[in-house]
Amino acid sequence: MNANAPSQAEPPAVATLSNQQRNPGMALTPEMFESHAVNRSATQRRAATLVTRRSVKKENQAAWLVNAIRCMDLTTLSGDDTEGRVRRLCAKARQPLSPELVAGLGIADMKLTTGAVCVYPTMVPHAVKALSGTDIPVASVATGFPAGLMPLHLRLEEIRWAIGEGAGEIDIVITREHVLNRNWQALYDEIAQMRAACGLVHIKVILGTGDLQTLRNVYAASMIAMQAGADFIKTSTGKETVNATLPVSLVMTRAIRDYRMATGYKVGFKPAGGMKSAKDALNWQILMKEELGNEWLKPDRFRLGASSMLGDIERQLEHHITGRYSAAHRHSVA
Amino acid sequence: MSSIANLIDSMDYGPAPESADIVETWLDAHKQGFGLYINGKMQPPTEELAEITNPATGKVIAKVSRATSEDVDAAVAAARAAFPKWSSLPGHERARYMYALARHIQQHARFLAVLESMDNGKPIREARDIDVPLVARHFYHHAGWAELMETEFPGAKPLGVCGQVIPWNFPLLMMAWKVAPALAAGNTVVIKPASFTPLSALAFTRICDEVGLPEGVVNVVTGNYQAGQQIVAHPDVNKIAFTGSTPVGQDIRKRTAGSGKKLTLELGGKSPFIVFADADLDAAVEGVVDAIWFNQGQVCCAGSRILVAEGVAERFTALLKARMASLKCGSPLDKCTDIGAIVHPSQKRSIEELVAKGVAQGAELYQGAAMEGCFYPPTLAMNVEPANILATEEIFGPVATLTSFRTPEDAVLLANNTRYGLAASIWSENINLALATAAQVKAGVVWINSTNVFDAGAGFGGYRESGYGREGGREGMLSYLELPGPGPQKNEDDIPAPIRPEPGVGGRLAGIDRTAKFYIGGKQKRPDGNYAYPVIHPKSGKLVGLAGDGNRKDIRDAVEAASNARGWGGSTGHNRAQILYFLAENLAARSDEFADRLQSFGVTAANATREVETSIRRAFWYAAQADKFDGMVHSTQSSFVTLAMYEALGVMGLVCPTAHPLLGLVSLLLPALAMGNCVVAIPSQTWPLSATDLYQVLETSDIPAGVVNIVTGDRESLAKTLADHDGVDGLWYFGSEAGIKRVEESSIGNLKQTWTEPGGRRDWLGKDGYGRSFLYKATQVKNIWVPYGE
């Protein structure tokens, strides 16, 4: 795919849902979330023990870390992003591990890349160019990221523009005010229109959970996003004061499970923001496996939105191979 | 494909074994056998040794000594010898030792966790994340109580030598729950670990040495149940603390009856787990995991009876079954294991037998997976009616029953339909409903939207046949302290002259005859047997009057009336205070009449007036306390309010001393009433007529019918009937030494709380005749854990 491709083009085949399985959405159905109780202290307790009940060591851990790379939306979303910066990120996405590590792990055949790169809309052309010849999709944030407080027609236009520039996935933000004021219909309509603007391109709906405050709000917003046709629901922009946490992620995965039980459609999950370590990568995969099962450990239903996590994973993998602890400067930067 | 690529395909967790090397080295160093720990020294192994197996592997991992009765004697003697010095240390000195124990437990945390997992079969995650941190927390908390003893419990004294019999389900934690408060209070201990799981207690002795704990303060005798029995029976042991099964607890109560030993019993349970329709069902499902699939369900407070609102039962069951599928039953030392080994093959057989009976009675099972060997799968038993053995008997395994209910009232009815009363878990987002249910459930610990949460700062212990006494918190310290009160006196035994219910044995009647019936359900009732006995002036020999000679059926009727009056306990402290003040007022209005009556029993005029005046003051004192004997909010875990509420025992029997016919009765009656109990009183056998005179005062004071019931007659036989009665929750007995033994022995049927004392010990007119200690004994503490956070 290149920057000149028409926006109606098929999104990259690899690592995404086929459009036959896409969640088509449904009518706004408040009874699926309005009376749904989420008890915070119990949720926190489960989130805390989820990751102490399970442990992944040695070969298995190496495999899980490689899987995390496969599911990673390698991200740069900074005001000082430049073409050069994005090019470097894309180079890392193409080759997240050094050839020595790849050989050491015996995964040359995998042709490992990250799941996607994730950038601001104006960086999409640079990313598309830098990733040409690969199957790595470019995910663009849109709709007035990160606050989303822009007129709706401009937000919809931003989606169309980014797709026109070659974005293969769109990460939109919701109007948090609609959740805080319980204006479910407005929220549903907004997301549904964004989904329509995305066309065949997959849409990830960022809830900005740090702004939503309560876990009941998180559950309601998750369910509305799915009812409006989200392909993925995503925790955070990375710009809120609190970003991806395990309790919030637990609530969102339970909403995904409930939506599946009600409709049969399997919506993906993307935690983003604040996850920096290989341990985080393991923890969130444990959450997915325990709450949703192995199907949600593949890039078509699970993405980790992260920037610095990859570096820590590399160090851990090198330790796995050499038995020695590694240092950051020994791995190429993103 | 490389193995990594294969693993990415399967995304299995793979093995994550915790290393046992260091523990194995330690066990290997003791392969000749562990000795007993007496007087600060590890003794050479006894001739006869018991093999200790790791239930997960079936392999023998250690041999431990079998204590003989001489060994028990030596351990008790060592504890006795250490007691004077240890108990007279300033609290601060004891606090230093306890702080050191806490620190060293933390520093040896992984060693203890691995050892505990190998000995008991529990998953390493639980030993590591729950048991051992709670052990350390318990010693820290009680280091604090040691420091604060003088200021927080002024005048209180340690009890002496404490015999502590530890269960096998949480060997180290239950030991800590007993040892920490005992040592903090200044007692010395003889510990008898469970015969299946003695190793962590032996490891603890190494830590005692390491911190330089004085010799003899802690002694550990391993062995079988006989060693436990010898400790229980030992004449030089002052207190027994036991955690284990209800039948053994009953046996201990029986064996210690009349011995004067203090007792804390933490026994079985069949705790309800109530899920209301508005609950966070996912949270409740996870609660079930923490309730019944924690420690393989071998938890006395396990939420083993799931009661779920009919409207959400189907969805809840589906969620629960889905959750069961992801539980991992496996090697306890694997960090991914949720469900480890059952402690011993005999326990596994016991679970299997109970489940088989339950199935024969109609239960349908849904089970997860289990490993081969001494493992049992997580099990959900459905279609379980209240009479099914799985709903009534403690299984002590990973088996929960699931029953639906219609209304909150129905839920409470089912929840309380059990002999036990240890814990309850309540799931609802409606705070009114959750707290109302918490108040109604008969349980010592109530968790709202949570389960199996523990902290050293809160009391733990049960109602009903789940035992008595508390472990943890301020209330737990009271189980190891003697509050200020009278010591033994000379000639304190209280044996009244026998009753002679034949006519004509009491001389001539002086004055107008007054008919003294019983007072049952707010009405004056004739004795069922229709016998009466004479009350005689001790000097003149004249007949003062006739009193009814009550029998078993009168007691039965009185208890029935008291049970039906339980609304009294739900009235406010203010309401009860008003009524007790009114009682004082009415008694004062008739004080001359009551003084005359006392004189008719041979009491001097001055003493009679003093007794009546004191009775009136006592009514004021307890009226004042009725709305002031507050509970507490314990400082426990973050995001929890832990409410320690004093609740009435329920129906109390009061057996009054012979002397002080009026004051003896009101001194027992008033604290019981002030705290909301309904009572059946047996007044002074020899001079019961002050009590029968009180009926009219009770009536005019607006005391609701059935709250006070009075039956006169033969103290010993009536007390025995009360002690035997399963509908009586507490019994105070002030009488003879022989009667104390009999009452304590008979109390085991429903394990009612007893308070016994020779009737002649206490100076009822003085400061020993009233006080907070009466209020403590008229109540039990319910700890309600309320989480917060939205």
Helical amount of chain B: 40-55%
Side by side, the strands of the main sheet of chain B go 13-14-15-12-11-17-18-33-27-26
Helical content of chain A (DSSP H or I, runs of 4+): 40-55%
Give the terminus-to-terminus CA distance of chain B: 48 Å
* Average pLDDT score of chain B: 96
| Oligomer type | heterodimer
Tell me the CATH topology of chain A. Answer: TIM Barrel
Count of individual domains of chain A: 1
Q: What gap, in angstroms, lies between the N and C termini of chain A?
A: 22 Å
The stretches of 5 or more residues of chain A where confidence is low (pLDDT under 50) are 1-15
Question: How big a fraction of the residues of chain A is strand?
Answer: 5-15%
Mean pLDDT of chain A: 94
Content-based structural category of chain A: alpha/beta
**What general form of chain A does the structure show?**
globular
Biggest sheet layout of chain A:
8 strands, parallel
Q: Largest inter-chain interface?
A: A-B, 42 and 40 residues
Provide the CATH architecture of chain A: Alpha-Beta Barrel
Derived structural class of chain B:
alpha/beta
